[in-house]
Task: structure prediction
Amino acid sequence: MPRQPRFYYPGAVLHVVQRGNDRAPVFTCATDHRFYLDCLRDASRAYDVSIHAYVMMTNHVHFLASPAHPQALPRMMQSLGRRYVGRFNFLYGRTGTLWEGRYKSTLIDTECYLFACLRYIELNPVRAGIVAAPGDYRWSSYGANVCGDHDPIVTPHPSFLALGATGAERRDVYRRMFCDPVAEDTVRAIRDATQFEWALGGEAFRRKVESSTGRRADRLTLGRPRKECARKSRL
Result:
C-alpha cells in the first residue's frame, strides 16, 4: 500500500514522534542528549521549522513543530537523523538503522488541541514514571515554556504568545494548566492520531484539512458499503 503524502498547509502545526528501532534506546547518556539538541537546533534553523515543544525519552522523541513550507519538516528530519545516527553508530560500534522506519506526524487543530499537545509532550516523563513532576526532567521544553529558561530551540506558537502581555504572564497561565491532567480521552485521541497519522481535531477541521491538502484526514469507515451505495457504483 503506498504511503499517504505528509500533511502540510500554511500555518500547519504537527505533532511528530520518532522511535528507536525495536524500541531500543537512542540516548544512553547526557552527551547523547546534548548532541541531539545541537543537531535539532541546527536543522530546525537550516530548514525553517519552528519547534514549540519537545521531549527526549530513552527510546523516542516528540516535537510540536510548525514547518514554513512543505519540504521543511522532511528535510529537517533527514538532516537531523543523518548527523545524529552517524555519530551514534560510530561511538557505539554499530551499523544500520537507529530509528523505527520513518517518523510519524499528525496535523493538529490548534484551537482545540495545541495546549493539550504541549502538555502531553512535556508530561511524557511523568506518565513514564521517570519523574514526579515535569520540571524534574532535564530533556524537554518545559523549562523554557514554564520556567523561562533560555532554550535556543523553542519558538513560542502565536497562541502561546496570546496567553499574556509579558513572558511571565504567559508562563504563569501555562503553568496553571498543569494543575489539571490531560484527560484520558484526549491522550487516546493524540496517540491514535499520531500512530495512524490522521488529523487531530473535530469533523469540521478534518474536512478542512482534506480540502486543503488533498489527502484523507481520518480512517476509513469499517464494514461493507450499504446496498444502495453499492448499487449506484455499478450504474
Q: What stands out?
A: The two ends are 28 Å apart (CA to CA).
